Amino acid sequence: MPSVAIIGRPNVGKSTLFNRLVGKRLALVDDRPGVTRDRREGDAELIGMPFRVIDTAGFEDEDPASLPGRMRVQTEAAVKECDVALFVIDARQGITPLDEEIARWLRALGKPIIVLANKCEGKGGESGLLEAYSLGFGEPLPFSAEHGEGLVGLFQALRPFVEGDALEEDTSSEDEDEEKSEEEIDLSPLQLAIVGRPNAGKSTLINRLIGVDRMITGPEAGITRDSIAIDWSWQGRPVRLIDTAGLRKKARVVDKMERLSVMDTFRTIDYAEVVVLLLDGTQGLEGQDLRIADRVLEEGRSLIIAINKWDMVENPSAFLQAIREGLNDGLAQVKGVPLITISALTGRGVDPLLKAAFETRKAWSRRVSTGQLNRWLTRAIAHHAPPAPGGKRIKLRYLTQIKTRPPTFVLFGTRVDQLPTSYERYLINSLRSDLDFGSVPIRLHFRSPENPFD
Fold first, then answer.
1. What CA–CA distance (Å, rounded) separates 242 from 298?
2. What is the per-residue pLDDT across 51-101, written as a single tens digit (0 to 9) for each?
3. CA 376, CA 430: separation in Å to the nearest integer?
4. Which of 20, 22, 179, 290 could bond to 42 as cystine, CB 3.0-4.6 Å?
């Protein structure tokens, strides 16, 4: 699919334009400059014309070793790979020296450039629109990303560069609400999110997996702000990797931008299939790690825990045992969560991590026939019968699976509202162990038949 990169200096409205084109609030937007850091990609459609759009960080003239300098490297890579670039300027502020520097750099690349004079609503941007002619890229387009003005003009400008390639693409999509077969699930991209505390090595792990410095990394904590999705393949199997912002304790999150990043990470967890919780091997297991894991399980996502920086851990066997004990105490609702030691810097353990992710998704998507479930229920009751509160028996009659991802079951019986929590845990743990669901979250609901005389 043809790609369109959005470039410009900080705070000219690039992320607002990105959200307008993809039709969703994917990129974080704020009045302060420098919100976007890593480049973000999304599927856009403009008046029926599909293309791939890339949001980039604000172009700044800084030392390449600094964080703004590393951001600029990602922006340069995005523009070099795209088919056409949208050079966004702030029409209300006019052309600045940095705009002129960006224009010189773009001319040297030889890419097709379309100048978008943003914030042209009303009459406040007329002078800046006229100034944009001096950049030397032809007629600038008056536009308002905030209000959606100028979309027809943008469509006409992009059409010669985009439409020919876009028509060759198959834009048909499946109904995501329909439950897929086991074979379809195995062939579909694995939605794999990497979460954890700041500076645990999430972006470094993504870069190691894909073999390219796609994500900005460095010693500074909290570099990643947006959740960035990257399409990739492992041993011929498609994977959609999602890097996320680090999650600190709630009491420490006071900055508005960090709160938006946290909300973005939580949305990513909600839509992931498998979530890798990355621990920092130099710091061990902390309460915040357990809170993140609990959030993942509450949302019904599959969980894998990876201990990063394993090459820096002293006394590994004792350290690993301490982690296991902490997980058993802190995640009592799910036992046996896969625990894998890795080094994002060297690549140690990444293949076992991906193998575990695919196996976990398979269990998370598994459906068991009603007959097999009820044969299991008969054995489970024979092994451990439900209690009889007040001398009246609780009868469990029938079990069926109503959905997958996560596996969800309904158990019909009489007086099931009086079942103790301990017996519910017994049933769920037995389901996991006897029917090979592993450590994936299981939801079990209870229903009593309606009394016709009530």
1. 20
2. 999 998 878 766 666 766 677 788 888 888 899 999 999 999 999 999 999
3. 9
4. 22
Radius of gyration of the chain (CA): 26
Residue 1 has pLDDT above 50, yes or no: yes
pLDDT of residue 76: 86
Strands 141-142 vs 113-118: parallel, antiparallel or unpaired:
parallel
Dist CA 360 CA 205 (whole Å): 19
Q: 299 by DSSP, 3-state: which?
A: coil
d(CA 74, CA 373): 52
Cα separation, 91 vs 100, in Å, equals 14
DSSP-H helix ranges across 135-286? 151-168, 182-187, 202-210, 256-271
| CA pair distance 410, 257, nearest whole angstrom | 42
Residue 16 has pLDDT above 80, yes or no: yes
Q: Is the pLDDT of residue 175 over 50?
A: no
Domains of the chain: 3-168 (3.40.50.300), 182-364 (3.40.50.300), 370-447 (3.30.300.20)
Residue 34, pLDDT above cutoff 60? no
Binding positions for GTP are 8-15, 55-59, 118-121, 196-203, 243-247, 308-311
410 has pLDDT over 50: yes
Do residues 354 and 239 touch, judged by C-beta distance below 8 A? Answer: yes
Question: How far is residue 71's CA from residue 94's CA, in Å, rounded to a whole number?
Answer: 24
